[in-house]
Amino acid sequence: MTDQMQRIALAGRPTGAPQPEHFSLETADIPTPGPGEILVRNHYMSLDPYMRGRMDDGKSYAAPVPIGGTMEGGGVGEVIASNSDHFKAGDFAFGPFGWATHAAADAKMCRKVDPAHGPITASLGVLGMPGFTGWYGLMELGKPKAGETLVVAAATGPVGSMVGQVAKALGLKTVGIAGGAEKCKMAVETFGFDACIDHRAYDNAKDLRAAIKDACGGGIDIYFENVGGKVLEAVMPLMKPFGRIPVCGMISWYNAGGLGAGADAKLTAPAIWRTILVNFLSVNGFIISNHWGDFPKFAAEIGPKVASGDIKVVEDIAVGLENAPAAFMGLLEGKNVGKQVVKLI
Amino acid sequence: MTDQMQRIALAGRPTGAPQPEHFSLETADIPTPGPGEILVRNHYMSLDPYMRGRMDDGKSYAAPVPIGGTMEGGGVGEVIASNSDHFKAGDFAFGPFGWATHAAADAKMCRKVDPAHGPITASLGVLGMPGFTGWYGLMELGKPKAGETLVVAAATGPVGSMVGQVAKALGLKTVGIAGGAEKCKMAVETFGFDACIDHRAYDNAKDLRAAIKDACGGGIDIYFENVGGKVLEAVMPLMKPFGRIPVCGMISWYNAGGLGAGADAKLTAPAIWRTILVNFLSVNGFIISNHWGDFPKFAAEIGPKVASGDIKVVEDIAVGLENAPAAFMGLLEGKNVGKQVVKLI
Predict the structure, then answer these.
(1) Residue A3: its H or E element
(2) A278 and B59: CB-CB below 8 Å?
(3) What ipTM was predicted for this assembly?
(4) HSE (side-chain half, CA atoms, 13 Å) at A129
(5) What predicted TM-score, i.e. pTM, was given to this entire model?
(6) Is it the case that residue A255 has pLDDT exceeding 80?
(7) Domain holding A231: CATH number?
(8) What does the pLDDT read at residue B118?
(9) I need a surface site. Which of A71, B66, B80, B132 has the fewest CB within 10 A?
(10) Is the same domain home to A222 and A184?
(11) Around Cβ A333, how many Cβ atoms within 10 Å?
(12) Identity of the residue in A228, A269, A290 whose CB atom sits nearest the CB atom of B267
């Protein structure tokens, strides 16, 4: 009998927030790695907001997960068999292993991870896709200058905390936005934000705007966009001339049922467009998978700062593959504190 | 008795489309030029969509015209008195002369125009602010590459026709959008667009989108935005990955009464934001007055092409200051064909 593994499949496409019935925990045979592939025992899997998009059946930058297919995502684990010259059994690897205890993956899509260099979970967060997203978007599209003011939401998440820490080190004033007093305290005390606004304390964009304006002491030069919704509506009128908005996500809208007309009635398309025009804004959408060529530069710059403690890391670790759906649903509601991973072993 | 002049003052602030009562034709004394100023007999004044914004009382990139103040705008005319070393009586000058037969203006805000080099109205259109807007936005923000596809609306206007002609010469496929069969014919036959779509032939964005898609033979790399509204809604889903959208105006929304929630219900903010993200778009608002430093480069490149006829010019000339309000109201509805000016002498 072939050895067995577990995986979580997409059982249905949600309208709005995913529910438990949209996921199914299944048992399958452990695959045999094909030519050029490695077989990995996944130790940690990543949970990231973009995965919500993969559950939808529509045009996006990546194909949707098919019904019955394993939920996609990055993971880090131990190589247990290898048909690649670049990996041997016992190595640790980061790769697209999905929501699964085991996976066979093309070795060219994987990266070696050395546990001697620090916690292997860093490859999923601060030194992985989310951290790289924050760094790239800030440096390449945000074009930060000392003395400017930056705002980023999800400030204690792996993207926002990277953006805030790198910007602060460059001499910017950093104002975070987060959900709840605990996260706001962490944003300031752990991640060094000059201030952090609790968006849950304001039930409308206007009051939230006033609080952000007060914390900024004026306008905003860089709004690093990863949430959309109420925060975007609050921030747009505060943008300074020649402001920059890198756009890497819009988590508040991911559950909005197709981003239709009712998703956010107060923030209109003409209002966004007008703000872009009259303030000469530069708004740039990006998805980090188009920019892996810059990853070595990122790793060389940020890796040592993580090792030295200059860049702080906070992780939220769920335990057990069967708990991944609940952790993911919580992530979309902002229940996690820090980078969400799932421990599988 | 001092010699008299005529001017058009802002008599009230419109909600929606301007009406005749928002303008008032007045007689005033011809001013005496102060130190460093020139006195000009205005021969032609320019009418441009941005002037609608100056009629509103709200935050924009420029201060509103005060009630009772002369409507602002560029003009070209003959210097009749000069307190500047740079101008002498008899020179022709372009400057901020407003909707008026005569004006005193700071010589530093004016530019000499040589009638021997071609029609002086060129300084208001093809070799003035609108032409420069099209050229700058295309070259600096559109980043055109041969083989790409460009879409621009108001294709026979002074901005759109410059964008189309420069892009075509660079090897792009150019698809114009204009209102009515006459303008579409002109876009193709005079300005060399590969195709031009009559937006009036489609009463909804979906059908307009199908026509644009068909004309493009695929997606759009550069959408040069000067209209907003239905065209924007039609175009957004057609944008290709890494597409660019320079935003210099949104004439279809200028009369929309403050660009409020009801201005365009079908095109939502989340839909715009999502398109920017999933297609990695670069959206850049700009106003050409921030970029006059590049004007000499523009004039050196485009001036000879206008003189040689490689860049075509179409003007729509209203006659008499008293007809300026009607011509302006028509401009906002797309009634003009080519660059709208008003002949004052």
Answers:
(1) none
(2) yes
(3) 0.87
(4) 26
(5) 0.90
(6) no
(7) 3.40.50.720
(8) 85
(9) B66
(10) yes
(11) 11
(12) A269
